[in-house]
Amino acid sequence: MNLQNPQPSGLKVTLRLETQPSGTIVTVQEIFNGWMGRLNNLSDLRNLTVEYENLRLTVEFIRSFRVLKFDAAADDCYVQILQANPPLRKKRLRQDMRIAAIALSLNATVVTRDRRDFEQMPGLAIVDWSTTELIGK
Fold it and tell me: What percentage of residues in the chain have a pLDDT greater than 70?
């Protein structure tokens, strides 16, 4: 996600559950974290209406797809991931490992361009959308 310009196209990860594209609540959190940082640090107040319109469009975009929750099954999977793979406990991997836990708990495929982090997760099916190459599993 581009935090400098968090537009709807800034989604870096989707999940493919059967054939229905979906996003995770973790991805939504990342998008809104970017927006909050941007809106709270906006130095040029003349762009406020434009920024809020872009935020509204982002909300509309998110509403157009299924948002997968981080439920008890995902939480159990997340705990197991971190216990079994100590190197994945790094703070910079936290959100990606939560997304991976959701995907693993649903037997879903992660569709992302961010192969480097997701490839560290054993058993996770990954498709790199920039090449449409099946990576894992």
Answer: 80
